[in-house]
Here is the input.
Amino acid sequence: MESLLNVFYFGMAIYGWYNWSSGGQKSETLAVSVCPAKTHVMAMGTVAVLVVLVGGWLNQHTDAAFPFVDSATTFLAIWATFLVARKVLENWYYWLVIDIVSIFPLGSLVKLNNGEVGRVVGTSRLHPTRPMVDILIDPAIEEGVLTRN
Here is the structure.
């Protein structure tokens, strides 16, 4: 599946390069454009349906940890890539959402620099790469060096 996605991105890179450099069929530099709200609503509806279908399938037939989040970020990235190739300004909104969701999904396990293992329970607006975690495993306690109250 990931290989197909890479083929898609390669094709979109060529398509985007052609559009940006030649203006597509107009043979002039492609201007930055804005999509109407209706286009975004229809796209989000399509993405939502695909997320439910593919996320549900992944949930039933694979051991994916976050099948719906994975599906959402994949389909949003496909749409955002198309917008970039067409030089549509709003592509940045989609990438921002994808980046925020992809950093540390809620419920994911993380290993901290000190060896502790925690579950992500929230995000920090000031430091998005430093999630709020509940510590699940503290090596110092496991080794008997410290005790928990």
User: Anything to note?
Assistant: The beta strands are 109-111, 117-122, 132-137. The radius of gyration is 21 Å.
